[in-house]
Amino acid sequence: MSNKAFKYRFYPTVEQENLLRRTLGCARLVYNKALSVRTEAWYGEQKRVSYSDTSKLLTSWKKEAELSFLTEVSSVALQQGLRHLQSAFTHFFAGRAKYPNFKQKRNGGSAEFTKSAFKYTGGQVYLAKCAQPLPIRWSRFLPANAEPSTITVKLSPAGRWTVSLLVDVDIEPLPKSDNQIGIDLGITSLMTLSTGEKVANSKGFKAKYRKLCKAQKALSRKVKGSNNRYKARERVARVYAEIVDARRDLLHKLTTRLVRENQLIAVEDLAVKNLMRNHKLAQAISDASWGELVRQLEYKCEWYGRTLVKIDRWFPSSKRCHSCGHTVNKLPLSIRNWTCPSCAVQHDRDINAAMNILAAGLAVEVCGASVRPARA
Question: Pfam families under this entry (predicted)?
Answer without folding.
Answer: Cas12f1-like_TNB, HTH_OrfB_IS605, OrfB_IS605
